Amino acid sequence: MTKEQADNGRDDMVIDGPGQANAVPDEFNANYLRIYYGKLFPHADMFKWMSYGNDGKHPGCDKSYFGRREFSFTLENDIYIRFQSFNSVTELENSIKEKCPFKIDIGPVYSVDPAKRHAYAQSGDNVFTPVERELVFDIDISDYDDVRYCCTGADVCLECWPLMTIAIKVIDTSLRDDFGFNHILWVYSGRRGVHCWVCDGKARRLTNEQRAAIADYFYVYKGNENSHKKISLPGLVLYPFLARSYTEVLKGFFEAKLLPNQNLLASEERYEKILEMIPDASVASELRRRWQENKRASMSKDDINIVRWEQLKSILQSGKQKMQGLRRCVEEIVFSYTYPRLDMEVSKHMNHLLKAPFCVHPKTGRVCVPIDPNNCDEFDPTTVPTLSQLLEELNRGGPRQDAENEWDRTSLGESVTIFRTSFLQPLLKSCKEEIENSYNAKLQQSKNALSWSHVSLKVLLNRTETDLSISSTHSSETLYEVVLMYTY
Amino acid sequence: MEVVQSQRKSSSNNVIVSILPLYRSAPPLEVRLEDFEFFAIDRLRVLKGLSDGLCRGKKPEEMEKLVLDLWKANMRHPQAVEEVNKDIISHFVLRLVYCRTEELRKWFLSMETTLFRHRFRWGSSEAQRALMSEFKLPYKAVSNAEFESLKDKLGQVARSMGQTLAAADAIFYKVPFEEVPDLVAGRRVFIHKGHAYVAINQVVSLVVTQFRSYLSKALILTNRKWTSTIREQEKDRLTPIVEALCTSYLGPDYSQQQEFGEISIKDIDQVAKTSFPLCMRHLFEKVKEDHHLKHGGRMQLGLFLKGVGLKLDDALAFWKAEFAPKVSAERFDKEYAYNIRHNYGREGKRTDYTPYSCQKIISVTPGIGDHHGCPYRHFSEENLRAALVRMGVSSRAVEDVMDKVHNRHYQLACTLTFEAVHGSSCDAGINHPNQYFIDSQRVLQSKNGSVA
């Protein structure tokens, strides 16, 4: 097979031997993407997910539900189209295959089909408005640049990636134990972070204010370069969620991994950053003095960071410290280095668009695969399948008998399986139950239609319910009555 | 009929009177035409006074006193029934007035909710419990057994706030967490599996949320009816009154440039030194230093400059030139120009965005790499002092400013800075960065007879 044939990206890439013939040049391009969307992208699964059980025959199903969801596509050459909507899995699939978007974003479910929004916008406010949207979180490792020295910006390696792992653990545990959510999907963002989709019905129906409240609940980190004290943990004890996160995840990770791997106390430049966080200058000076003296001496065989950390802890946590600000200083240091840093704006608004799982990241070629929170320690961003790798695997498989489930022949199969078994299937089961229960409840309720306010209105105006117009011949009515008629 | 004190329920004839109406029902009344308008104006004085108090960063105790004073001054009536009627009537009239745009609704909702919150807290605990049941909140008190099993965690939450779990607090309510967003946001309640355990004294939050949500929906319904029916039908009676009631109660929003007309790029450097408030100075300096600003900063500074009088073409040229060392002209056009045009209302839904007020800027939390938000709130003491000195504030004035900052009165801090830098007083206080700019230019102009 010549290079030309490989680059053509034609579907019938039959190979006659192993070796370099399978190799796909390592680029991200529209042709590769076309094949990906043609054979690997799990359109049907995405459709099932986004339908939340409304694609069945149950009378309680809302047939319009999927069609009211906004998608947006970023096409080649950065052309960006919003308010895409589809009425069936076929429409979704065909549009993706035809337009071959470099990125697919998922928006909220609106009150009406986004394609028809202009028709509705005129008749009063808020008629075209989001009505449901998953609770989402976005964690980006470049927000941790001030605490990792191995990489900066868009780079990620196995030394710093664990910061994402512990973020997942902290947030996931809280979402389940504190907030009672069950259907949570974590996704690798393709380069340097993770996204979280909370898909319980209750979560999807949260208002912006409630989303902001949850984001604020998680918010601890306060810093930017203009303020030194980046985390403040007042109070006599830590709030239960923070205490649990500290003892179960953050402390262990900081002391055993981050501290030694990033050499946080090994050099003056680095330990100064920690000393800066100690509000008592005399304590900080004492430690500084000790560490400067010990710079050259070879100490015990233990890692220098760990030794120094023990010294720091023993001074700060000794009974002698009376100063208020020192009480939680050790925890504050650990939190400021390890506690999850969320992008608050992403979570607070229903209309925020977020990249869809299983997209391919244009800069890395990696697929945005799900991460199982129960096994997140094992997740390795450097071995996530890339587009070219997947195409290579497809080639290797030889001619296919059936066009279904191509991903099983590739590394993507594992990700699709995780998606289905740990997320999609339990979710859909729960959705079906919800639809049934809600349908039955509505049947009961339809008997109690008349609200008491109508009764009062009748009494007030001494008219029949239907006659709500004012005629100018009724001179005895006051403006007050008119106001009431229209305002409550 | 006794004089109404907020703690006592008044006796009355058959009219339904609860001291704190929920504005869900309206008893049959006769209202004189003049009262219609006067009542509404009196209530508006209360709401406007509240709004001012909030803008000035008054502490909670000060706000309580303020609300009480405002209410006494404007809404009191020797007869309890009359007071309640005025309360209800004025509320409904203002609903009509303030239902008509998103901005008006937001303001009205915010003020009425604040008013309600304070009035609820004045009430005795029986009055409060009675109100709670009126809201038909289906939340039960936590059983003793469940309380025992959760006592440790509840105590932990209390201690994390610097409080203790007294015996009196043994009454807790179990509610879905989404009913008490502000308590959750502040980590002031224990939550478990989606339930929040609310102490009796936190119940205010519960009730206020219900009140707010009801009123929010009612306003939207009212607006629909207004637009579809009333406005036209009542154009000779109600409509002129309603429209007159609404004007100029929210303060100027600086979306149109005013007396100073245009500012061109060559002027910016100069006026930045003399007339920008600290928040904008900081952003301006950073963009010159880093040749970049993140989104929040670009919005805050960009809209401010628009309010100051920078035209779209000049704005595009300004940002492009500042970013040039890091961003090629091509990339600029691709990634940044659209947003700037959007801010000026030339793209998308063509909203001409208004520059951010102090309230909005203070409420924002800058993250890593951000320079927006209110520096009086977010800068460390050291950095803030240094910045003030660079602005030319004397060391005595710096102490005064820092004192305000420590008490979280950020706008007062900015006002003091203004006064120190310009050597003249600013009685109205600073509520908006563009107001700072305009006032500054005014002072300088009167000193030099020209735009400094």
TrEMBL record, chain A:
Compositional bias ranges of the Basic and acidic residues kind: 1-13
Keyword Disulfide bond appears in the UniProt entry: no
Gene3D superfamilies per record: DNA primase, PRIM domain
Cross-referenced InterPro entries: DNA_primase_S (IPR002755), DNA_primase_ssu_euk/arc (IPR014052)
Record-listed E.C. numbers: 2.7.7.-
Record-level GO cellular component terms: alpha DNA polymerase:primase complex
Keywords: DNA replication, DNA-directed RNA polymerase, Metal-binding, Nucleotidyltransferase, Primosome, Transcription, Transferase, Zinc
Pfam families, per the entry: DNA_primase_S
Domain of life: Eukaryota
Enzyme class: transferase
Cofactor(s) needed by this chain: Mn(2+); Mg(2+)
Disordered, as annotated region: 1-20
Gene Ontology MF term list: DNA-directed RNA polymerase activity; metal ion binding
GO BP field: DNA replication, synthesis of primer
Family listed: Belongs to the eukaryotic-type primase small subunit family.
Protein name, as recorded: DNA primase
Biological classification of the source: Eukaryota, Viridiplantae, Streptophyta, Embryophyta, Tracheophyta
From TrEMBL, chain B:
One of the GO BP terms on file: DNA replication initiation
GO CC entries: alpha DNA polymerase:primase complex
Cofactor(s) listed in the protein's UniProt record: [4Fe-4S] cluster
Family matches, as PANTHER family: DNA PRIMASE LARGE SUBUNIT (PTHR10537:SF3)
Record-linked InterPro entries: DNA_primase_C (IPR058560), DNA_primase_lsu_euk (IPR016558), DNA_primase_lsu_euk/arc (IPR007238)
Family: Belongs to the eukaryotic-type primase large subunit family.
Positions of [4Fe-4S] cluster binding: 279, 358, 374, 414
Protein name: DNA primase large subunit C-terminal domain-containing protein
The keyword Calcium appears for this protein: no
Bilayer-crossing regions: none
A Pfam family of this chain: DNA_primase_lrg_N
GO terms for MF: 4 iron, 4 sulfur cluster binding; DNA binding; metal ion binding
UniProt keyword list: 4Fe-4S, DNA replication, DNA-binding, Iron, Iron-sulfur, Metal-binding, Primosome
Domain annotation DNA primase large subunit C-terminal: ranges: 269-437
